[in-house]
Amino acid sequence: MTKIKIAPSMLSANFGCLGEQAREATEAGADWLHLDVMDGHFVPNITFGPLVVAALLPYTVLPLDVHLMIEQPERYVDDFIRAGAAYITVQVEACPHLHRVIERIKEVKNVKAGVTLNPATPLVLLEEILPYVDLVLIMSVNPGFGGQSYIPTSTDKIRRLREMLDHAGSRAELQVDGGVKAENAAEVVRAGATCLVSGSGVFNKKASIAENIARIRQSIAAAQSQSQG
Ligand code: DX5
Ligand code: ZN
């Protein structure tokens, strides 16, 4: 059975003690840490850059999954590689030379390359790049902010991407980002996701990081046992 990964988005963590929050998520059984980089141009919000990514390294053994919501990502991928990123995902909407950026990321040993699509960007834009990528991310909210609601039509898009990947024989991760929490994790997994990003579903005042991750894990297990039975 595929191990479904949980990648807490540090965007919803307490930035006043980001390292400690990364450590807590790691000890709570997260699989990756998702880091949302925003530039105030591609999206209307600004977060952090490679220095902050590098600063998290001493606090976790997990792969750092860097999601670049920035214009001209080719200018910065080397900095994020040096910062210790394990995955670097770029927005197809920001990359006229997508193949070149993906190849640059993959040139580096142990660094994997991902592409992502905004909610209104059609899957057909992936057709030519699919053989080159290690990860495809479906944005299930419009990027820019944590805590938004999952866009319901994303489920059908995930399903169609699952078919595309299987048809192409691709083993790329199918990651979903935006409004994913314990309540809808099963639906997202049943549609074919292999990695769930969750920000406000993991870092919130309702429960501890460990309790929230455990609830998402239960929801994933329920989806997987249904599909087996
Ligand atoms: C949205 C970011 C997401 C976000 C997810 O722009 O890419 O990673 O932090 O947060 P939630 O899970 O709260 O929607
Ligand atoms: Zn993200």
Tally of DSSP β-strands? 8
Distance between the termini: 13 Å
Order of helices and strands: EHEHEHEHEEHEHEH
What small molecules does the structure contain? D-xylitol-5-phosphate, zinc ion
- Rg result: 16 Å
Widest sheet: strand ordering: 1-8-7-6-5-4-3-2
The pLDDT mean sits at: 97
What's the helix count? 7
The portion of residues assigned to helices is: 25-40%
Structural class: alpha/beta
Largest sheet: 8 strands, parallel
Please mark out the parts with pLDDT under 50 across 5 or more consecutive residues, or reply none: none
Tell me the strand percentage band.
15-25%
Shape: globular
Key attributes of the depicted protein:
229 residues; 7 helices; binds zinc ion
Write structural notes for this entry.
- The chain has 229 residues and is an alpha/beta fold.
- The protein is built from 7 helices and 8 strands.
- The protein has helices at 18-27, 50-56, 77-82, 98-107, 154-168, 182-190, 209-228; strands at 5-8, 33-38, 64-69, 87-91, 112-117, 135-139, 173-177, 195-198.
- An 8-stranded parallel sheet has the order 1-8-7-6-5-4-3-2.
- α2 (50-56) links the parallel β2 and β3 (64-69).
- α6 (182-190) runs parallel beside α7.
- It is globular, with a radius of gyration of 16 Å.
- The protein binds D-xylitol-5-phosphate (DX5) and zinc ion.
- Residues 9, 34, 36, 67, 177, 197 line the site of zinc ion.
- D-xylitol-5-phosphate binds at residues 9, 11-12, 34, 36, 67, 141, 143-148, 177-180, 197-201.
In short:
This protein is of the alpha/beta class and 229 residues long. The chain has helices at 18-27, 50-56, 77-82, 98-107, 154-168, 182-190, 209-228; strands spanning 5-8, 33-38, 64-69, 87-91, 112-117, 135-139, 173-177, 195-198.
